[in-house]
């Protein structure tokens, strides 16, 4: 269906895709439209109650018969637009002047399909602001015209239905869904349908409104091979997953192109903990269909033989694993191997072993005592320390990146600015400026080394060619950055403080060298002893700051 839609759009004429060139809207008409001046627009445009429009004209004067000149003036105004291409109907709908909107619509229905500079129709604007009342009345007046306008797309290839779903306007979604249920299947250029957008954006009310009109939407397969319930699980939308399990149990059991169900999807995500626990809570009070269905799905295998527990183990999702095993009552028979011969426990063991060196003794003791099976002690004594280390690693890495970025920028955006004539720092001769140079360089070098150590700690599998390639590319890029920092600092500071400029350059070249640094500190194993000494030294919270201050100001005396 998506291919047919895309091919039909490709056949659209160029005149349809380019907004019509319209004369500039008169200022008095623009102001009247913004203010919603009904009396003025009725007099200027000869707007009458036509075709059964139930509106009230707030004027006692009858509208005289228009002359030919007045008729041409009215047509000119209706055909005019603002500098942004908005017609009179765009303005009235956006400002929610619904009475005037219906009058103008009955005067010229083609305005509903007119595009502005963003290729948006007035129907797009109605969907954007959630003006469901005017959409309902427009459909009542001429459903065919509204349906035709619904097929028009903006510059992002979105229809008004896409816009309404993205902004979570449930009322608009219901009206458009009732008018044309097929519009909910239409995909934009990213391959997203209105239903897909509503699920990803966590707009549960809009999703339920679509499903209420057309329940078959629940079994729609998206372009990535997933179904609505899979996307909801992947996004951690517990309420929507629960709705599928209760209202559409057959559709909740659908499998994607890899043979995975909703629990496989949930097990992959960081945000799935709450979803899994909440869904499993349903089975505590329900011993009928949902209970049986959930138990079979959490032990189902995909085409690679992985159960949701396997997926959670590979991703290190402790709470998800624990929730699944609590549901299975730690049944050892359920811990089947996948097609590669790996059990969920084996995958979890490998994951923690590769990341957490300090806990390997604990892991070995656990295997000796408990065997190669999950128990509550695995999650409390092994997984929690592993999770804490992983979280600390992420925080340290993020902080190191931030310091490196700030220090690099500070080296060339110096305090006080630079001299416009020769580019030398204005405050370069001052002692505190030289102290700033030393402190900034130390911050940059140490943050770089911290980031390097974090990246190196992830290189656990020598057989992973892609990771090895990425690691060496990172090493090369980081080395070039440090060398660039040293050369740039030298050029910036050599006119004002030659000794410090030389020190910064030499240190940057040594630390940033793509051969010296890894050979001396990484591959020969010396880095472990050096970093162990450094971490112990940093543990002296009083001595370290004092030593750093002495170093900074002593170097600044040069």
Strand percentage lies at under 5%
Major β-sheet profile:
none
What is the helix fraction of residues, given as a range? 55-70%
The radius of gyration computed from the alpha-carbon positions, rounded to a whole number of angstroms, is 33 Å
Structural class comes to mainly alpha
C-alpha geometry: flat
- End-to-end gap: 74 Å
Number of helices: 31
| Low-pLDDT segments | 1-18, 48-63, 515-529, 535-543
Please state the average pLDDT score. Answer: 76
Number of strands: 0
Keywords: ANK repeat, Membrane, Repeat, Transmembrane, Transmembrane helix
Protein name: Ankyrin repeat protein family-like protein
Pfam family, one: PGG
Transmembrane segments: 395-414, 435-459, 471-493, 500-521, 533-557
């Amino acid at each position: 269906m998506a291919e047919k839609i895309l091919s039909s759009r490709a056949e659209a004429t160029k005149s349809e895709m380019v907004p019509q060139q319209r004369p500039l809207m008169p200022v008095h008409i623009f102001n009247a439209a913004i203010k919603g001046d009904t009396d003025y627009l009725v007099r200027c445009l000869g707007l009458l109650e036509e075709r059964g429009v139930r509106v009230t004209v707030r004027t006692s004067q009858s509208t005289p018969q228009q002359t030919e000149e007045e008729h041409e003036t009215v047509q000119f105004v209706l055909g005019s637009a603002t500098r942004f291409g908005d017609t009179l109907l765009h303005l009235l709908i956006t400002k929610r002047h619904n009475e005037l909107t219906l009058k103008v619509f009955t005067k010229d229905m083609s305005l509903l399909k007119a595009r502005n500079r963003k290729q948006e129709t007035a129907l797009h604007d109605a969907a954007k602001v959630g003006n469901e009342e005017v959409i309902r009345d427009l459909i009542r007046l001429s459903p065919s015209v509204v349906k035709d306008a619904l097929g028009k797309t903006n510059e992002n290839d979105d229809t008004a239905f896409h816009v309404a779903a993205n902004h979570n306007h449930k009322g608009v979604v219901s009206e458009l869904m009732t008018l044309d249920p097929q519009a909910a299947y239409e995909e934009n250029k990213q391959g997203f349908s209105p239903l897909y957008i509503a699920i990803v954006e966590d707009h549960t009310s809009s999703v339920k409104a679509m499903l209420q009109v057309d329940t078959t939407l629940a079994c729609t397969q998206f372009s990535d091979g997933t179904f609505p319930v899979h996307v909801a699980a992947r996004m951690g939308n517990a309420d929507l997953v629960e709705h599928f399990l209760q209202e559409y149990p057959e559709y909740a059991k659908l499998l994607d192109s890899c043979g995975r169900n909703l629990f496989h999807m949930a097990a992959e995500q960081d945000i799935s903990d709450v979803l899994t626990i909440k869904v499993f809570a349903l089975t505590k009070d329900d011993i009928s269909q949902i209970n049986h269905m959930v138990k079979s799905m959490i032990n189902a295998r995909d085409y690679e033989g992985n159960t949701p527990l396997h997926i959670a183990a590979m991703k290190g999702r402790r709470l998800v694993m624990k929730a699944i095993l609590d549901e299975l009552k730690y049944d050892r028979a359920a811990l089947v191997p996948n097609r590669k011969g790996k059990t969920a426990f084996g995958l979890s063991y490998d994951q923690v072993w590769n990341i957490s060196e300090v806990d390997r003794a604990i892991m070995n003791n656990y295997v000796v005592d408990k065997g190669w099976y999950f128990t509550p002690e695995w999650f409390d004594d092994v997984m929690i320390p592993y999770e804490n280390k992983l979280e600390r690693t992420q925080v340290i890495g993020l902080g190191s990146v931030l310091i490196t970025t700030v220090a690099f920028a500070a080296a060339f955006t110096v305090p006080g600015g630079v001299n416009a004539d020769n580019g030398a720092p204005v405050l370069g001769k001052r002692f505190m400026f030289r102290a700033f140079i030393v402190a900034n360089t130390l911050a940059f070098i140490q943050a770089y080394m911290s980031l390097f150590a974090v990246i190196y700690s992830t290189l656990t599998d020598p057989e992973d060619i892609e990771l090895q390639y990425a690691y060496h590319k990172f090493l090369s890029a980081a080395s070039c950055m440090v060398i660039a920092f040293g050369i740039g600092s030298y050029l910036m500071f050599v006119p004002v403080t030659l000794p410090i400029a030389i020190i910064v350059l030499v240190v940057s070249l040594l630390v940033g060298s793509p051969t010296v640094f890894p050979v001396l500190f990484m591959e020969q194993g010396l880095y472990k002893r050096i970093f162990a000494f450094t971490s112990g030294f940093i543990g002296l919270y009083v001595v370290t700051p004092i030593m750093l201050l002495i170093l900074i100001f002593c170097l600044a005396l040069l």
